[in-house]
Amino acid sequence: MTTTSNNDIARAIYLMFKDKSSSEQKNISEKVVKFLFRRRLLSKAPDILSRLKKIINNADGRLEVKISSVEALSHQVKTHLEQTLKKRYLVKEVVLKEYIDKKLLGGLKIEVNDEVIDLSIKNKIEKLQEYLIKV
Amino acid sequence: MNSNTIVENLKKEIDNFSLQLKVEKVGQVIEVFDGIAKVSGLSDIKSSEMVTFPNGEVGVALNLEEDAVGVIILGDFSKIKEGDEVKATGKILEIPVGDSILGRVVNAIGAPIDGKGAIKASKTYPIEKVAPGVVTRQSVDQAVATGIKVIDAIIPIGRGQRELIIGDRQTGKTAIAIDAILNQKGQNMICVYVSIGQKDSKLRKLGARLEAGGAMDYTVIVSAGASEAASMSYIAPYAGVSIAEYFMDQGKDVLIIYDDLSKHAVAYREISLLLRRPPGREAYPGDVFYLHSRLLERACRRNAKYGGGSITALPIVETQAGDVSAYIPTNVISITDGQIFLETDLFYKGIRPAVNVGLSVSRVGSSAQIKGMKKVAGTLKLDLAQFRELEAFAQFGSDLDESTKKQLERGKRAVEVLKQLQYSPMKIENQIVTLYALTKGLMDDVSIDKIKEFEQGLIEYSERHAKTFYKEIKESKMWTDKGEVELKKVIGDFKMGFSK
Q1: B24·A124 Cβ contact <8 A
Q2: Which of A114, A127, A131 should be substituted to probe chain B, the one whose Cβ sees the most B Cβ atoms within 10 Å?
């Protein structure tokens, strides 16, 4: 299949914007929107944008991390997490996005791209349930 | 067990439980339709890897595209919705296996569906496995006794062979398979019956029949019913052969029946079209040959160095109006080591099993046939071939010479002898006695409508009186001159008392 994927479009947009002055960038932005409109791709814009964001983050050595917990995290925990994640994923910068989720019951859930490290109490209980049913 | 001990046990198990935390790969459902889910994310997923959905449903990743993964859902997909989290398991789809699976009816993912409670599984086996290689194999040299005269004599099947049963609807394909299972009692054989896209009523009837024949003690039924998703039908034969492999790995001989592979191909076609794979001939995808070849290649006979054991496969294919040159029939004919061809015309003529002896072959089975049977079958094959040739020709002329007439009469008797009722498998020794009498011309003076009666009587009589012959066949698979003289005398004696 030779259709252009959203990822291809996002990569093309990124390459166009790369190393350009701000006035040029504005010009390109307009062109990109026109292109998307002409090709009837505006409905896919959110997906293309999220992919573009990932590409830019990747190029800049930045990592977006989603952290869910029951309560807001202390500063100390956050810096510790940042350090660990930097080492694990070999990136320069870690951007933490915090979410509060009461359903986790306790602990943490860390989401990086499509990887999940689930340290929540809810997950542990579910695993225990699976184990007990098996036994 | 009282409540205290239950609590104690639970406590112990909870203490034993150690949680291993690991990084999980997840994705999100983009769309769900007709048993298929498109999932984003899930980078690094393998082809055929198992994924899990939030409500516990299992899926298999089949299409790995640049920004989405095409997953087939095994089971109920009505509760899966857009945005659901999908977890990769890092494992190829596995099914639980164990000795306690014998006598049970399970679905395509190994879960019991016979209402007899959970199956205690000792192991899990992946459903996709590369077939045993050349070094581990041995040529086929042991017979599978099906108890059906026409098959055991003319189209013999060996342990480790793949023999296709092909024919139109309602020609007795399943009947042959069931008779073969029923006859495995005491033959040191495990049977696996894989029902693909069949009616549940048929399965029920079949299960009851096997139960009544005492065959469920050594049989497993794997069923993907007509009401289940196409993905289950697609998985079922692979699950069946995995169960067979579990028993083969213990050095046992296994007989597996796929009923039927044309429905399997149709299920795979449905999945492929939904996954937007390009259609080919008859809208089947390009890899439909590989679909069946990799399945049937797992049937094999392993040599003693690699643990022995064998898997004999009897795939069934249904043709439309006798057209064996359709896509799936030609594919499977070319994969298997021979075919048993059933015909509607013969069936309605009353020749049942309706095997067309001329078109049926067994490419490797003759080396597995026991010596005694080989001896009588050789002449039988010749008799039948000559009969077929003369039959058409004899319709025109009434003036036939003596030898032609004789051949025609012999042929008619051969056809009559090869008729056999369903669910009445015959012991190999008895088959040899009957065929011996036939091929030596000892039945030539019995009128055709009395052949069955003669056969029945002869078997009963010779079982009692030709003890040496029977003993020789049982022990050395061949008779000696002494046994033959005895048998001839016994047949002669029986004929004296039989009103022809």
Answers
A1: no
A2: A114
Cβ(B141)–Cβ(B367) under 8 Å? Answer: yes
B24 vs B26: CA distance, rounded Å: 6
For residue B133, the one-letter residue type is G
Contact with chain B for residue A54, Cβ under 8 A = no
Range from A6-10, B337-341, B442-446 carrying the lowest mean pLDDT: A6-10
Picking from B65, B91, B117, the residue at the C-terminal end of a domain is B91
Report, in this order, helix, strand and coil percent for chain A, each rounded to 5.
60, 20, 20
Give the predicted TM-score (pTM) of the model: 0.91
- CA B253/CA B189 separation, integer angstroms: 5
pLDDT band at B417 (very low <50, low <70, confident <90, very high): very high
Looking at residues B232-252, what average pLDDT do you find?
Answer: 96
Do B259 and B342 belong together in one domain? yes
Asked whether residue B317 falls in the same domain as residue B412, the answer is no
B324: exposed, middle or buried (Cβ count in 10 Å: 0-12, 13-18, 19+): middle
- Inspect the interface and report whether the beta carbons of A5 and B43 lie closer than 8 Å: no
CB contact under 8 A, B23 and A115: yes
- Contact in structure between B462 and B472 (CB atoms under 8 Å): no
pLDDT digits (tens, 9 = 90+) for A24-69: 888 999 999 999 999 888 888 888 898 899 889 888 888 889 999 9
Q: Looking up tokens 């695993």, which residue turns up? A: A127
The residues of B carrying an active-site annotation are 363
Domain boundaries, chain A: 6-58, 62-134
SS3 (DSSP) at B94: strand
Q: Which residues contact B125 (CB under 8 A, 6 or more apart)?
A: B94, B95, B97, B242, B243, B245, B246
Alpha helices of B249-363 — where are they, by DSSP H?
A: 261-274, 288-296, 327-335, 344-349
Domain contains B38 = yes
Residue positions forming the annotated binding site of B for ATP: 167-174
- Name the residue facing B66 among A5, A113, A114 (closest C-beta): A5
- CB–CB of B450/B500 below 8 Å? yes
pLDDT digits (tens, 9 = 90+) for A77-97: 999 989 998 988 888 888 888
